[in-house]
Amino acid sequence: GQVFGHFLRLLPGLAGLLGALLVIHGRPRGAEIDGTWSGVALVLAGAFAWALFTVLARPVLLRGVSSLGLTFWGLLVAFPLLTALGAPGIVDVPWERVGWEVWGALAFSGALSIGAAYVIWNASVRSLGPSRTALYSNLVPFAGVAAGAVLLNEPVVPLQLAGGALVIAGLVIVRRT
To answer: Dihedral through CA 46, CA 49, CA 50, CA 52, nearest 10?
Structure first.
């Protein structure tokens, strides 16, 4: 009874994780993933930092800090580190060829893709808690595959669809518990 209860509490997370892995692993033939060990290490460090921020955010949010305020201060604190990481690449940018389209995309990315998404994320952490909110991050690979299919006409394979269904099933389970 008690073991089964623990398993049921883990089921949404396991379904979401397995689904995300299937979406990533199920990529079409020829769609190889290239990477360096330093890149993998940076992605893992970023995931760890994101998880730590998510867990530590809830007590701050429950003390009355707004989602917008926490997002602002979080980005302000992260800015120097992100700037330092990107500095070597900034030197090589041909600034004279950077047009308004790039600056517009940068503003859109900063304000909407990052800023608005973090505000929504923090509001979710406040109301649902970090564990339940984190399950929604399993939608990212599935959303990427769906966007690639719709916007770039990229192929979607059955394993990716099965993975997406598992991710959504995990979210449905957690919403009902």
So the answer is: 160
